């Protein structure tokens, strides 16, 4: 990765979706090849349903519909709904954080606050 790519990684959590999309489409390997094929993006619609019988921080797939998931209301509130990325290419954007209160390991790219104990992060996200 070049210096611009590293700067993007450092600041991804302070950007809106359009800025992220634009910058992802421009990231390249040292050889000059694009890292992400944004033109081949796939969108998946998922539905989340509140079920407070499920422990916070967990998702339970719906047995009848693979696009539906059930989760505790705390988990749904904590989840960033506008940036759900999947695939091997996105592993490098992992921003691992251990919650100071409950000691659970989280990836900050997905959460506004700890979905297990509701503690606010003590780092800038």
List keywords for this structure.
125 residues, alpha+beta, 3-stranded mixed sheet, two-stranded antiparallel sheet, 14% strand
What would you say this structure looks like, in words?
- It contains 3 helices and 5 strands; from the N terminus they run ααβββαββ.
- The protein has 125 residues and is of the alpha+beta class.
- It has 2 domains: 1-41, no CATH class; 43-125, no CATH class.
- Strands 1-3-2 form a 3-stranded mixed β-sheet. The chain has a two-stranded antiparallel sheet with strand order 4-5.
- The protein is globular, with a radius of gyration of 16 Å.
- The chain starts with a helix and ends in an 18-residue tail after the last strand.
- 10% of the residues are buried.
- The mean pLDDT is 78.
Rough shape?
globular
Number of domains: 2
- The SSE order reads HHEEEHEE
Structural class: alpha+beta
Number of helices: 3
Estimate the mean pLDDT confidence.
78
Helix share of residues? 10-25%
Extended strand count: 5
Strand content: 5-15%
Low-confidence segments: none
Alpha carbon gap, first and last residue:
22 Å
Main β-sheet description: 3 strands, mixed
Major β-sheet strand ordering: 1-3-2
**Gyration radius, rounded:** 16 Å
Q: Layout of helices and strands, plus pairs?
A:
Elements: H1 3-11, H2 17-26, E1 47-50, E2 59-61, E3 68-71, H3 73-78, E4 96-98, E5 105-107
Parallel strand pairs: 1-3
Antiparallel strand pairs: 2-3, 4-5
What is this entry, summarized?
By secondary structure, this protein is α+β, with helices and mostly antiparallel strands. Helices cover 20% and strands 14% of the residues. The strands form 2 sheets. A 3-stranded mixed sheet has the order 1-3-2. A two-stranded antiparallel sheet has the order 4-5.
